[in-house]
Automatic annotation (TrEMBL):
It catalyses: L-glutamate = D-glutamate. Its EC number is 5.1.1.3. The gene is murI. The active site is at 70 (proton donor/acceptor), 186 (proton donor/acceptor). GO terms for molecular function: glutamate racemase activity. Keywords: Cell shape, Cell wall biogenesis/degradation, Isomerase, Peptidoglycan synthesis. InterPro entries: Asp/Glu/hydantoin_racemase, Asp/Glu_race, Glu_race. Belongs to the aspartate/glutamate racemases family. GO terms for biological process: cell wall organization; peptidoglycan biosynthetic process; regulation of cell shape. It is an enzyme of class 5 (isomerase). The lineage of its organism: Bacteria, Candidatus Roizmaniibacteriota. The keyword Transmembrane does not apply. This is Glutamate racemase.
Length: 258
């Protein structure tokens, strides 16, 4: 059986890239809902509906385990999927997200003033605030929604000036908060990490999710041999998009190898 990786668009490829590096032996099926990206400006109810459809698609493609490589979906939908949907319809399969592994990793850090940027849906859910507070009760968390970033990135936006303006605008509030770390809580943002680092400066540790999610999945599979044993190890990777006619080859290349 396969490992499924799902995102609203191309952002989840940053997670897949890390998985392929850390756990190259498995078979992966990637699904990007590029026909409906961005999710982040939509209601939690509709994001849940889209997420459920994606999960059903990946289960039909013989996925034993699915990683929701999307913070908007994880923060609005994962709990309901795990607690209500899976027990009823797919009791033997697993769906994991990006928030738990990332907060566990933050729990091992000494960060005290953590900035979190992501989509509106992620920010409104307050999922990271809740989860980080559980393990770092004294930490101060400052969130900022960046609703233009995902459409900009998906539209192959590499116009430096525009990107610089958008980022400066979104980050100016956080820069005044004297943050020691900045979590990129949207899987799309990894490809503009350098530009973000240049704005926040060397004193702020910029954290991306790919490597953390891959490392934690490795630990998870070691602990759950009953799942690991079911996974095919043929190093096959397949990609599916809900709008297969969109030409996203160049951008995919940037996400996976850039
Ligand atoms: N990559 C998704 C995330 O991590 C983007 C969500 C969106 O489509 O707005 O949240």
């Amino acid at each position: 059986m396969n490992i499924g990786v799902f995102d609203s668009g191309l952002g989840g490829l940053t997670i897949l890239k890390a998985l392929l590096k850390e756990l190259p032996q498995y078979n992966y099926i990637y699904l990007g809902d590029n026909a409906r990206v961005p999710y982040g400006n939509r209601s939690p109810e509709i994001i849940y509906q889209f997420t459920k459809e994606a999960i059903d698609f990946l289960f039909k493609k013989n996925c034993q385990l699915i990683i929701i490589a999307c913070n908007a979906s994880t923060s609005t939908s994962l709990r309901k999927i795990q607690q209500e949907y899976l027990p009823k319809f797919h009791p033997n399969r697993k769906v994991l997200g990006v928030i738990k592994p990332v907060t566990e990793e933050l729990g091992d850090s000494k960060f005290q003033r953590i900035g979190v940027i992501g989509t509106k849906a992620m920010v409104n859910s307050e999922a990271f605030i809740r989860e980080i507070k559980k393990i770092l009760p004294k930490a101060k968390i400052f969130q900022q929604a960046c609703p233009l970033l995902v459409p900009y990135i998906e539209d192959s936006g590499r116009n430096r000036k525009v990107l610089q303006l958008i980022l400066e605008e979104y980050l100016k509030g956080l820069r005044k908060k004297n943050i020691d770390s900045l979590l990129l809580a949207c899987t799309h943002y990894e490809i503009v990490k350098k530009e973000i680092e240049n704005i926040v400066g060397p004193k702020v540790k910029v954290i991306t999710e790919g490597y953390i999610v891959a490392k934690k999945l490795k630990d998870y599979l070691k602990k759950h041999m009953e799942i690991e044993e079911k996974l095919k190890k043929k190093k096959k990777v397949s990609y599916f998009f809900t709008d297969p006619n969109q030409d996203n080859k160049k951008l995919m290349e940037l996400f996976l190898n850039g």
